[in-house]
UniProtKB/TrEMBL annotation:
This is UvrABC system protein A. It is found in: Cytoplasm. One of its GO terms (biological process) is DNA repair. Its main location: cytoplasm. One of its GO terms (molecular function) is DNA binding. Keywords: ATP-binding, Cytoplasm, DNA damage, DNA excision, DNA repair, DNA-binding, Excision nuclease, Nucleotide-binding, Repeat. GO terms for cellular component: cytoplasm. The keyword Metal-binding does not apply. InterPro entries: P-loop_NTPase (IPR027417). Belongs to the ABC transporter superfamily. UvrA family.
Length: 81
């Protein structure tokens, strides 16, 4: 939409920063990049490492599930069970 410019968040939310990055910036990080970005958050790192362990480190943190291939969905399920 013209307000969010396709970022799915209102400007007030996009103005909030975590380590100088907006939510949109963070959601465009890959899982691999997220491990470094969230190095001070052990719970997040644990989840991201599970995704790396099944070969999904290249996925974007904000990637829509409907865009995943069948194999990616299977590996995601393996990582979360």
């Amino acid at each position: 939409c013209p307000v969010c410019q396709g970022k799915r968040f209102i400007p007030e939310i996009l103005a909030l920063k975590y380590h100088e990055h907006s939510i949109d910036d963070v959601l465009h990080l890959s899982v691999d990049e997220g491990v470094g970005f969230f190095s001070d958050c052990p719970k997040i790192i644990k989840t991201l490492k599970m995704l790396q362990d099944v070969g999904l480190g290249y996925l974007e943190l904000g990637q829509v599930l409907t865009t995943l291939s069948g194999g990616e969905k299977q590996r995601l399920k393996l990582a979360t069970t």
